[in-house]
């Protein structure tokens, strides 16, 4: 769809709401390469939507720069930025057909009729909703409605696509299915995309780059693989991979352990070990763990428990275990544990 993709640079961007005492977005810097999909993730209230609204031009930064294709964008009104905005609710018009919804933004921009028809047809095809062109969006499933909202945004040939929680209106089963479809669609469209999600799984699965935010600050900006392998700190490890971040101590043999007997293979320096549920298994030798919760997950159990020393960790196992049981756990063979600073 896009012939020329746009780069986005946020440079020291801050935003403070009137009447508040701190920045909702605080000195955030990152850049998105042309055609990339970047996800903003972080706990509720960390500033994701505020940042997205600044990029959209719905809010004006209190400090910093926002560059698109190297050009300062702060000060340019929202309707002159050529941005495709897909709100959480999709905001489709029920009294218009799917095709008319997609055409809506083009009419508003006074695009000529023949060109409108061409762009609508292309957007419908790209989003695989041509079969529903004459239907009302109200007669479509949640997933199909989402495609209409994206087609409507893409039809205007935006420089940048902004998606606010694109999958949150869908049920959990459908969310997983549709994130692959949405990724494929975004890749095919080639448009530079910023998306907000509070679901770290969604961010890892869909984005080229992920911005992890906490209390307005950017904690880390990296590819999903890099975030997983080298989380910048304990917060990122816990948020991105549901890790338990446990302090290590030096063993007499020079190695490091996260609890008596729980050796962290390959750890050269001490620090905190980010232990993910998939990192540990029940073993003959290792550390004692008292099971405090056992959640059945179909082909496995998700156990949580306390190690000697008090740290709480989780692990996936196929062995049925009951709450109160005492088990021995170790790091699975050939598993690299991420070490972080707290
Ligand atoms: N209009 C407003 N006036 C004052 N403060 C606001 C306003 N909107 C948001 N905030 C505050 O700014 C901070 C960031 O909010 P924001 O909505 O950007 O977070 P978020 O990460 O998108 O959260 P969520 O995941 O819950 O949508 C929060 O502390 C919030 O209370």
TrEMBL record:
EC number annotated for this UniProt entry: 7.6.2.9
GO cellular component terms, A-Z: ATP-binding cassette (ABC) transporter complex
UniProt-listed InterPro entries: AAA+_ATPase (IPR003593), ABC_SmlMolc_Importer (IPR050093), ABC_transporter-like_ATP-bd (IPR003439), ABC_transporter-like_CS (IPR017871), P-loop_NTPase (IPR027417), Transp-assoc_OB_typ2 (IPR013611)
Entry's Gene Ontology molecular function annotations: ABC-type quaternary ammonium compound transporting activity; ATP binding; ATP hydrolysis activity
UniProt KW Transport keyword: yes
PROSITE patterns in alphabetical order: ABC_TRANSPORTER_1 (PS00211), ABC_TRANSPORTER_2 (PS50893)
Keywords: ATP-binding, Nucleotide-binding, Transport
Domain of life per record: Bacteria
Residues in ABC transporter domain copies: 8-240
Family annotation (SMART domains): AAA (SM00382)
Name of the protein in its database record: ABC-type quaternary amine transporter
Species of provenance: Stackebrandtia endophytica
Taxonomic path: Bacteria, Bacillati, Actinomycetota, Actinomycetes, Glycomycetales
